[in-house]
Write a structure and sequence with these properties.
This protein is α+β, with helices and mostly antiparallel strands. It contains 4 helices and 10 strands. The two termini are 36 Å apart. The protein has a 3-stranded antiparallel β-sheet with strand order 3-4-10. The chain has a 3-stranded antiparallel β-sheet with strand order 6-7-8. Strands 1-2 form a two-stranded antiparallel ribbon.
Length: 216
């Protein structure tokens, strides 16, 4: 049986850089006589985040926001410079109830902002002819910030993580913020970053948006 060895990279780096998570490893070795061998391991390499505490600014400039409510995955948000105000739908009063499960309290759509945003980015938001955009969700879907492109509009419970950690994260306005969670034809979920109240607002109103991403 071969002994265990600890392998260290010459410059102690991995290129390209890996995001935080646990990885499987396949090792292939060839000696100077062209004798080769390989081995595979599962969950062998763990990469820790460079911003382990809530409110820490990561090396890419994003901010560690806490853990997601649907699986305790690391969740990150942008700086306030990437905040905006958008309507939830296309800004019209031609309101439409999408096929997303309406978020009351325990539905998955109250927690899964990534899935919500992917759906809303291509779904129709109004009863008028053609495909009308969901402006808030599309803003996050199309956002490139801090070198990342996988931003999404947080669901109701994910938005509450931002509220809970708002002081450490910083940059939030004393205002309402949209979630990607729908209630019905007329309303979608919002949260006050003054009082913490989670309620609803009319989809055609312009409300603040702070996008998030997570490491799966």
């Amino acid at each position: 049986t071969a002994p265990n060895y600890t392998w260290t990279l010459d410059d102690n780096t991995i290129t390209p850089a890996l995001t935080a998570g646990t990885y499987d490893i396949t090792l292939t070795i060839t000696d100077t006589a062209s004798n080769g061998g390989n081995d595979s391991t599962t969950n062998e390499l763990t990469i820790t985040a460079d911003c382990p505490n809530i409110g820490n600014v990561c090396s890419d400039g994003s901010i560690y926001a806490g853990v997601s409510p649907d699986g305790n995955k690391a969740m990150y948000t942008t700086t306030a410079a990437h905040e905006t105000a958008r309507t939830w739908n296309d800004g019209s009063v031609n309101l439409l109830d999408t096929s997303l499960a309406n978020c009351s309290s325990a539905e998955s759509t109250c927690r899964t902002g990534q899935n919500n945003t992917t759906f809303l980015a291509t779904a129709d938001s109004a009863t008028t002819a053609g495909i009308q955009p969901h402006n808030a969700a599309q803003y996050c879907e199309n956002l490139t910030a801090h070198g990342q492109t996988d931003w999404y509009l947080p669901a109701k419970d994910e938005l509450n993580v931002l509220f809970t950690n708002r002081t450490a994260i910083g940059g939030f306005a004393n205002a309402w913020y949209w979630s990607s969670s729908e209630i019905n034809s007329y309303f979608a979920r919002v949260q006050s970053f003054t009082s913490g109240l989670s309620t609803h607002n009319s989809k055609e109103h312009a409300v603040r948006v702070r996008c998030v991403r997570r490491v799966n």
